[in-house]
Write a structure and sequence with these properties.
Strand content: 25-35%
Order of helices and strands: HEHHEEHEEEE
Helix content: 25-40%
Shape: globular
Organism: Campylobacter concisus
Largest sheet: 7 strands, mixed
Protein name: Lipoprotein
Distance between the termini: 58 Å
Amino acid sequence: MKRIFLFVILVIFASGCSSGRHSIPLNKGAYKQTNIYSISEALNLEAAKKELAGFENVRLEFGSNDQNKSVIKANVKVQRFITDSGDIKGYCQEAFVAVIKRYMIAAKKQNADVANIVSFWRADAKYLKDEFVCMSSKNSVGVVMRADLVQK
């Protein structure tokens, strides 16, 4: 009976892991192509505006390394991976908006702003004010960012 139960759990897990889109990369080493896209273009998409509605009071500051702010929580790393083939730019923008939303949720909970937002891939920070970095492979994209939650 125990073996049947374990087999059923294994089958359910395996079928769930092999279908559709995932938020966990299958092989981080496979991300070879660097894509750079506009932050303002991604945030001005209709889907992004709907996703980020309600967070208007949270200020975002991209590409700086200002250490003079009163930091509530430092070096918060957020990542989002999407495994699917198709429109790389669209999936990169979707992953970027998902990362920004997670920062905004955390900032809203602590009544803070999000500052020093940088693209961060394999310990290499890119201080871009107008663009973000998205890594991609044949079937997946990934956005990793690092930021600080600072007092308003």
